[in-house]
Write a structure and sequence with these properties.
Blueprint (H helix, E strand, L loop, with lengths): L1 H29 L2 E7 L11 H12 L5 E6 L15 E5 L13 H10 L3 E5 L11 H7 L2 E2 L9 E2 L22 E2 L5 E2 L6 E7 L3 H4 L11 H4 L6 E8 L5 E5 L11 H14 L15 H4 L9
């Protein structure tokens, strides 16, 4: 009788363990995280602002991550807002300013509604620039900061990224530097709780005095901040539980070949989608041939 009871108990344990494993597996596979990358229209000379090629390259890296499905929409905003159904994260890598895709038509309302649902939002390079009176307040809410014309600056320089915070987005990221149009002196939300600087560096006085890409400057308030460390990439945890990030690099397409730059952005895409970031970050490798794929047809 005792033997039968022991066998029955073991069987029950195996049964319930199997059910638990099956349930966990089903949870992981039945509802993959949906990440949407919006690539802006072609702009700038070849090799610069390669939004489509950059997004497709990031997608190819995320395709190797289990439980994540990534979609790329080229040449600006998708034709139908239905593509956002079930999205866990939306990232815009495009030209910004007055022509920003986020403030055309009803797009601001669409993104606002997604934000209220807890969907993660991210903006990269020129995409972090938005007019202060048209989209600026929303960016402060969605990602905690933005590039403001003639308040922020956009010099070509080579920041030295040497230390990183204890944050999932920084997992596996090693010290690196590359020359690019790295923006700084963002306009931040007054209440900066929830914002974590990810990439920080101290511009030299030479960098502060310009020239900036546009307008050339220098701006007195930028020069006066000599010696101050600046934030060039950040994450934001919104009070409603949603997440966001801003990444100011990405002007030069070749820099996506840098393992640490690529990793910190790939980690960010997972993090704002509330997908698990691996302990050593997203592992990926790209070749020169892959970097040369999907480039926009532009006049040299």
């Amino acid at each position: 009788m005792k033997l039968i009871s022991s066998i029955a108990l073991v069987s029950l344990l195996v049964f319930f363990t199997g059910c638990q494993s099956a349930a966990e597996s089903a949870t992981q596979t039945a509802h993959p995280k949906k990440i949407i990358l919006i690539a802006g229209k072609p702009s700038h000379p070849p090799g610069m602002h390669e939004f489509r090629a950059g997004c497709l390259l990031l997608k190819s890296c995320l395709d190797a991550v289990p439980g994540v499905t990534t979609f790329v929409y080229s040449n600006g905003w998708p034709e139908s807002d239905s593509v956002f159904e079930g999205a866990d994260a939306v990232v815009i890598y495009a030209d910004g300013g007055a022509g920003h895709p986020a403030i055309k038509g009803n797009h601001r309302e669409v993104l606002g509604a997604l934000s209220k649902k807890g969907v993660g939002l991210g903006f990269m390079h020129f995409g972090v620039e938005i007019p202060s009176t048209n989209g600026g307040p929303e960016f402060l809410e969605w990602i905690g900061g933005y590039y403001e014309h003639q308040f922020s600056v956009n010099p070509m320089w080579s920041p030295q990224y040497e230390t990183f915070p204890n944050h999932p987005v920084a997992r596996g990221v090693k010290p690196f530097s590359n020359r690019d149009e790295w923006y700084f002196n963002m306009r931040w939300a007054e209440k900066t709780k929830g914002i974590t600087p990810i990439l920080t560096a101290t511009p030299s006085d030479e960098v502060r005095k310009g020239p900036y890409v546009y307008p050339k400057g220098p701006y007195p308030h930028i020069v006066a901040a000599s010696g101050r460390k600046e934030t060039l990439m950040w994450t934001c945890e919104r009070p409603d539980g949603g997440r966001g990030f801003g990444f100011t690099g990405g002007h030069t397409h070749a820099n996506w070949g840098n393992d640490s730059q690529r990793k910190v952005v790939l980690n960010s895409l997972l993090w704002i989608a509330k997908a698990g970031v691996p302990k050593t970050g997203v592992e990926s490798a790209v070749t020169a041939e892959q970097l040369a794929q999907n480039l926009d047809l532009k006049k040299k």
